């Protein structure tokens, strides 16, 4: 999952301050499934990495149907993962993925950076054994090749007791050992199971309010170009108050950038922590409760066959969208 | 034991060992010890083996990119996390790898497959990617199975060789499998492949292909054989013509078969697309005995993506078909003769209007070409273009009225022999001469001379046709009219000649016949002009379409570019001359370049345009595509702009035309 922060939040939370590389929160990583003995009230949850230094991270996500742990950390930032802000209105930002040009073209194993220079494509790193404590059952993961991927898809759902401290530790890998903490978020419930987006209009979204004192935030993601041609993406990071607003200015930019396939959306309540790693890198640890509404865009019909299209339109089955005859 | 994947159908796997003797299919060449592995009922999601031709056909679909004709393709995926398991994907059910991977290779003990955006930015580029993505394609005419990667895939030698060997070991055609590099970058990597990964180049694939579908469709007409020289004059519009070579031009006909391969942007194909008539190339067609046997007979010709057919029909069948399929008359906007000012391109359109309304407001006075140039000038720095101005069709109408030419035309059509095509052509040629011989209004000439002297330092200018019945969304009129250069001189003779030549070309017989075919009223058509400096000693020129014309779905976005050195034409090349035909994946990381064909006017290994020139052109095409999309692409279907460009003597890119691309009208 690509996570982004608004400019204001970045200013507050940018990495480079504390260094969690040596467990700045005091956890010792030695507990069982109780968060390593960490007291939730004492947990310092310091937000995410600036995208310019985000080398990767780990996510524990509990959705409607299952809970998973997923993680990967690279040796640097993939240049095109640093997105350009197009427009920010309220809590929402439209980002654009750049496509730099290198001449001559880069060789396999290289990628073009934003200044037009070929650089080695960042490789994923072996972080040694990675453990997560505080979940209903402890997780202990080894890297899987290729790609030094970490995952566990055998978690119970929900995998935690809301409010509990979660502690992630890495040990014996490419970087110094790290310990990161988050707090298990309350389960999120959608205010409406269907999101109806109308070009030219703001979109209001609602969700269940969290327990009092929660430090969570809520992230909204929309994917309306499911075949991926557009370089534009939208992300909103709302304070966890139970409602948020996507301004038409941002929504329209996203819609104008392209509509293909079956639109999808996600709303995620999360807590997020980070630690500095390597030489100038940053790693995240996220715990999220996510829900995936049905998404409709007025005037647009996704399809798999002609029968699903309104009169006067035909189904482009590859792009899964109805188009004018 | 080999496992066959049958997820969606929830059927039991059809197990088969390589050495099994079960299965009735006999089409297992080229391997000898293979049997079909897919059950005869149900719809498989994929298979880890292809044991026979039937297996392949049950998994294969038309490839997304049809730039090399006669292909069927099944996508392949090697999951390096999951013991490097290989799956041949049912590519009708899952047109892109992600759709399969996200359903069957995510969770349940495997890593989660991320969203499509993350998948696309990792799985084709990362050195430690999880998946090796590719396709096995069958090219029917050379009769070869090849393994291919997406042209933007940056897989290294080990990845390619690994996937190739797994496919080889898992398919009945493995012993004859070849690797086909699909882009310049992959060609470079392929040079280091080990010997057990044999290569076939695009040129070698083309060499084995005899059939090239250009414009798909079905038509009925009378089959005739003509040389390219013979079609310079009128050809009956009910003929389906077999040509020895590619002609420079051809009047409206019911269909065309050329004995030489064409480029999709060749004039003959642009005309066929405009007219909605089937067009194909078949090597040796002019001498083909099966076709010769039908000479002079009424036939039905069908041009399909993979195959073509022809059959004899009766004349009454052909008549009935024509009556049911003749084109609806086209209506053009009436001439707007209220504007007499010469206007700069940069100020032609009203910026207060929507682009669509602004174009509508000017086409009737300045014609399609000039109006689109005016629109393009509003895009900004991303689209370098020449300074230019427009001459409204007011002056054409005034010329026709002042010299009684409208009346002369009317009188000419009342000639009893007018209905006879060759006589009509002669009369029209005489009429063109009358238009050219009539004196140009000196007031108008002075206006033009002053404009050229004041704004362009009296340099040589190109006067380009821009009627109110061309470059429109419904009708391109490509190549119907003439353009001519004129040098500034004190008496204005050269410029006067150029202007009158362009005006007279309204009445060239081919243009007249084309309009007649479409039911366009000839006297509703007026000639305006786009005027820009001429290009001397240009380094290159070309035509570019702002979409991948070989992928009507839009899943493989790319620009299609034809480029040639100097001033050699790309749409009307001299006999034997080939151009660089390029698919440019501008939006993909690394901007991969696919050379479908190469120019034979540059040294072997050289290209007409450099990477930097292609990138600058790509940036301009991207901006043009986006800018005109609200006008011509709002319906969501295939949309593209057709552009012309130059690389000038001093190496500057200039885009000198943009108009809506007609697309595949016969589809």
Description:
The complex is a heterodimer of chains A (325) and B (667). Chain A is mainly β. Chain A has helices spanning 7-13, 248-256; strands at 54-62, 67-73, 84-89, 92-96, 110-112, 118-120, 128-133, 139-141, 150-152, 165-172, 178-183, 194-197, 203-206, 217-223, 232-239, 243-246, 264-277, 281-291, 294-297, 313-316, 321-324. In chain A, strands 3-4-15-14-17-18-1-2-9 form a 9-stranded mixed beta sheet, covered by helices on one side. In chain A, strand 1 and strand 2 form a beta hairpin. The longest helix of chain A has 9 residues, at 248-256. Chain A starts with 6 loop residues before the first helix and ends with a strand. Mean pLDDT of chain A is 86; it is low at 1-32. Chain B is α+β, with helices and mostly antiparallel strands and 667 residues long. In chain B, helix 12 runs antiparallel to helix 13 (421-437) and helix 13 packs antiparallel against helix 15. The longest helix of chain B has 22 residues, at 355-376. Chains A and B meet through strand 21 of A and helix 3, helix 5 and helix 17 of B.
If strands are numbered along the chain, what order do they take across the biggest sheet of chain B? 1-2-4-3-5-6-7
Mind summarizing the main beta sheet of chain B?
7 strands, mixed
Helix segment count of chain B? 17
β-strand percent of chain B reads 15-25%
Helix content of chain B: 25-40%
Shape descriptor of chain A: globular
Largest interface: A-B, 51 and 50 residues
Number of helices of chain A: 2
Short descriptors:
heterodimer; A: 325 residues; mainly beta; nine-stranded mixed sheet; four-stranded antiparallel sheet; 38% strand; disordered N terminus; B: 667 residues; seven-stranded mixed sheet; 25 strands
């Amino acid at each position: 999952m690509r996570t982004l922060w608004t400019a204001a939040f970045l200013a507050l939370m940018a990495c480079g301050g504390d260094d969690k590389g040596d467990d700045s929160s005091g956890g010792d990583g030695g507990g069982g499934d109780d968060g390593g003995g960490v007291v939730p009230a004492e947990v310092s949850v310091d937000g995410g990495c600036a995208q310019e230094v985000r080398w990767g991270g780990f996510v524990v996500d509990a959705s409607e149907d299952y809970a998973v742990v997923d993680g990967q950390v690279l040796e640097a930032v993939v240049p095109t993962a640093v997105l350009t802000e197009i427009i920010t209105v309220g809590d929402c930002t439209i980002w654009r993925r750049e496509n730099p040009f290198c001449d001559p073209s880069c060789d396999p194993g290289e990628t073009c950076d934003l200044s037009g220079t070929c650089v080695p494509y960042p490789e994923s790193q072996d972080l040694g054994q990675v453990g997560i404590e505080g979940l209903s059952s402890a997780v202990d993961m080894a890297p899987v090749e290729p790609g030094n991927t970490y995952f566990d898809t055998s978690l119970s759902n929900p995998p935690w007791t809301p409010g509990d401290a979660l502690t992630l530790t890495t040990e014996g890998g490419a970087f110094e050992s790290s310990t990161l903490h988050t707090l298990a978020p309350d389960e999120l419930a959608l205010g409406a199971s269907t999101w109806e987006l109308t070009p030219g209009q703001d979109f209001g979204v609602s969700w269940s309010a969290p327990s009092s004192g929660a430090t969570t935030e809520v992230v909204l993601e929309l994917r309306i170009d499911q075949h991926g041609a557009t370089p534009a993406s939208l992300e909103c990071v709302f304070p966890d108050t139970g409602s948020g607003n996507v301004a038409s200015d941002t929504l329209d930019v996203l819609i104008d950038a392209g509509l293909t396939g079956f639109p999808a959306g996600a709303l995620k309540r999360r807590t997020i922590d980070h630690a500095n790693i390597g030489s100038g890198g940053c790693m995240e640890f996220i715990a999220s409760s996510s829900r995936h509404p049905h998404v409709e865009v007025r005037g647009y019909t996704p399809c798999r066959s002609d029968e699903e299209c309104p009169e006067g339109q035909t189904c482009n089955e590859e792009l899964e969208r109805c188009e004018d005859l | 034991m080999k496992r066959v994947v049958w997820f969606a159908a929830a059927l039991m796997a059809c197990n088969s060992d390589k050495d099994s003797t079960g299965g009735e299919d006999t089409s297992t060449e080229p391997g000898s010890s293979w049997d079909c592995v897919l059950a005869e009922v149900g719809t498989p999601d994929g298979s880890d083996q292809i044991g026979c031709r039937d297996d392949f056909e049950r998994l294969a679909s038309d490839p997304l990119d049809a730039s090399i004709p006669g292909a069927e393709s099944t996508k392949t995926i090697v999951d390096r996390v999951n013991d490097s398991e290989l799956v041949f994907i049912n590519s009708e059910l899952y047109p892109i790898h992600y759709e399969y991977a996200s359903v069957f290779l995510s969770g349940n003990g495997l890593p989660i497959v991320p969203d499509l955006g993350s998948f696309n930015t990792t799985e084709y580029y990362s050195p430690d990617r999880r998946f090796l993505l590719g396709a096995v394609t069958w090219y029917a005419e050379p009769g070869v199975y090849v393994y291919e990667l997406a042209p933007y895939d940056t897989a290294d030698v080990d990845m390619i060789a690994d996937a190739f060997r797994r496919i080889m070991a898992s398919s009945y055609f493995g012993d004859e499998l070849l690797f086909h590099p699909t882009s310049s970058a992959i060609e470079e990597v392929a040079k280091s492949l080990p010997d057990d990964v044999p290569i076939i180049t695009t040129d070698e694939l083309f060499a084995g292909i005899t059939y090239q579908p250009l414009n798909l469709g079905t038509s009925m007409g009378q089959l005739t054989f003509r040389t390219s020289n013979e079609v310079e004059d009128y050809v009956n519009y009910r003929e389906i013509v077999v040509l020895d070579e590619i002609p420079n031009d051809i009047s409206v006909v019911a269909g065309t078969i050329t004995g030489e391969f064409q480029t999709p942007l060749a004039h003959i194909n642009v005309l066929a697309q405009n007219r909605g008539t089937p067009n194909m190339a078949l090597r040796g067609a002019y001498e083909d005995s099966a076709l010769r046997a039908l000479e002079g007979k009424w036939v039905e010709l069908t041009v399909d993506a993979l195959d073509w057919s022809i059959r004899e029909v009766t004349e009454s069948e052909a008549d009935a078909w024509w009556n049911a399929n003749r084109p609806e008359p086209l209506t053009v906007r009436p001439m707007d003769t209220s504007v007499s000012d010469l206007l700069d391109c940069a100020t032609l359109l009203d910026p207060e209007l929507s682009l669509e309304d602004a174009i509508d407001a000017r086409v009737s006075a300045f014609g399609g070409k000039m109006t689109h140039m005016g629109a393009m000038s509003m895009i900004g720095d991303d689209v370098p273009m020449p300074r230019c101005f427009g001459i409204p069709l007011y002056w054409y109408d005034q010329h026709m009225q002042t010299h009684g030419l409208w009346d002369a035309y009317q009188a000419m059509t009342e000639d009893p022999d007018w209905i006879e095509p060759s006589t009509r052509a002669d009369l029209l040629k005489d009429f063109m001469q009358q238009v050219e011989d009539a004196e140009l209004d000196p007031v108008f000439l002075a206006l033009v001379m002053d404009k050229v002297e004041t704004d362009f330092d009296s340099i040589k200018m190109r006067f380009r046709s821009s009627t109110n019945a061309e470059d429109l969304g419904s009708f391109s009129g490509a190549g119907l009219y003439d353009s001519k250069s004129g040098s500034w001189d004190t008496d204005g003779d050269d410029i006067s000649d150029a202007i009158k030549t362009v005006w007279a070309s309204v009445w060239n017989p081919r243009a007249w016949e084309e309009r007649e075919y479409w039911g366009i009223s000839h006297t509703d058509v007026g000639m305006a002009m786009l005027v820009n400096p001429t290009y001397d000693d240009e380094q290159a020129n070309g035509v570019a379409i702002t979409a991948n014309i070989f992928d009507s779905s839009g899943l493989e976005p790319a620009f299609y570019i034809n480029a040639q050195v100097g001033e050699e034409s790309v749409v009307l090349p001299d006999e034997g001359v080939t151009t660089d035909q390029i698919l440019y994946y501008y939006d993909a990381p690394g901007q991969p370049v696919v050379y479908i064909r190469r120019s034979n006017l540059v040294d072997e290994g050289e290209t007409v345009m450099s990477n930097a020139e292609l990138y600058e052109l790509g940036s301009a095409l991207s901006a043009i595509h986006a800018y005109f999309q609200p006008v011509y692409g709002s319906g969501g279907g295939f949309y593209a702009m057709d552009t012309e460009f130059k690389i000038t003597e001093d190496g500057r890119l200039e885009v000198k035309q943009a108009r809506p691309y007609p697309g595949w009208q016969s589809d």
